[in-house]
Amino acid sequence: MFASAADTACEGSGVSGPVLIPQRFVWPYGGRRVFLSGSFTRWSDHIAMSPMEGCPAVFQVVCNLMPGYHQYKFNVDGEWRHDEQQPFVNGSYGVVNTIYLVTEPDILPAILSTETPGRSHMEVDNMEANPRMPVSDLEVSRHRISVFLSTHTAYDLLPESGKIIALDINLPVKQAFHVLYEQGVSMAPLWDFCRSQFVGVLSAMDFILILKELGSHGSNLTQEQLETHTIAAWKEGKLLQCRTLDTNGGSYPWRFVHAGPHECLKDVALKVLQNKVSTVPIIHSSSEDGSFPQLLHLASLSGILKSIYRHFKHSLSSLPILQLPVGSIPLGTWMPKVGEPNGRPLAMLRPSASLGAVLSMFVQAGVSSIPIVDDNDSLLDMYSRSDITALAKDKAYARISLDEINIHQALLLGQDANSPYGLYNGHRCHMCLRSDSLYKVMERLSNPGVRRLVVVEAGSKRVEGIISLSDVFRFLLG
What we know:
Elements: E1 21-27, E2 34-38, E3 47-48, E4 50-52, E5 55-65, E6 68-76, E7 79-81, E8 88-91, E9 94-101, H1 135-150, E10 167-168, H2 173-183, E11 187-192, E12 197-203, H3 204-215, H4 223-228, H5 231-245, H6 265-275, E13 279-284, E14 294-300, H7 301-312, E15 333-334, H8 355-365, E16 369-373, E17 379-384, H9 407-413, E18 431-432, H10 438-445, E19 452-456, E20 463-468, H11 469-477
Parallel strand pairs: 10-11, 18-19
Antiparallel strand pairs: 1-5, 2-3, 2-6, 4-5, 6-7, 6-9, 8-9, 11-12, 13-14, 15-20, 16-17, 19-20
């Protein structure tokens, strides 16, 4: 049941078809049966939407539409609804959502031309499209984003209220990681009482390095010492060791990376990217010598991306590249194609892999999250660096051997016994399709706690790639 509306291409003409843009519609608010209808169906046909695998409350459908202005709404269990989180207006059919698709023939070719037999122009699909991206569109989009980031400061990221956890450097490491676990955070700034300054951060990577050292035969750190080993002693020891082992002349990133509230968002984003950190503390001091500092906020790329999303939400036509499918632009890390020369395989592991193998991959490959897949490379779960803090629960780290416990068991250790979700249910996984627009990907990544999206094949959930916040910012900033 597909539309015969004037703003979709007609089949069987034998001539080159019009430009069509894949547009993903999502209803994330649950229901038993959800349909989509709009101006592109002349409001007469209803398009069935399918629940996402692992997310039964989220319904989606991909339609290939003509460029221009469209109105639409959803029929949820027989009731007409609109998404209040998307642009909407009062129209002839009541309150309806709106979308404006902009393109030119040299931006997106006909993704579904009239010469393609057996395919509907509004079919749910995951077709590969290779739209060309004019240099002018890329430059214009990057310039406008750069101007926005350069004219807004870290002050714009500050919430009206909130809580920030900071740790004293003389706190024992063991207690520090219990605090991180209990507070549900993966990092915290460090406060030096003697110097009255913030001097660094304690992160999940510190816990990973500690666990690896405890598990090594030549370790200088024992379980007993961990009870009294302070954060300061750990940091000093690792800094000295890394200076000794660093034969490449590089600098080890233990220095404290922070920003002031008056620094522009572009500078804050560049600090995150260049220093390979996930969070930059925003610190303010009214004194010229920096004394009596105030910790205002923990800035992340997610918060900056949310600012971009809000600013350009109703003027998407000013950023042409946001309409492009993510599978068509140089963004993220992808599975190498068969026969592709020098293709670097995407880091993935099976549930039976040891926790030690995961931690080694975090350190050696420099990745922050690893997809857990089955024998068909279909996504089961994700194991992230931040998940390691769950081992602080009931001192689990003291009872396990990294090479004997596997990922499946490690995930069970951190699972809430009262959780209504199963272990491999996709609840922790954030996914997208290669046909999703860059705008949709940015929208999802701007949500708190979402640092990466796994690109999966529709239906099979076979992993095709990973797009992180850092990937998006490197692309947008050039």
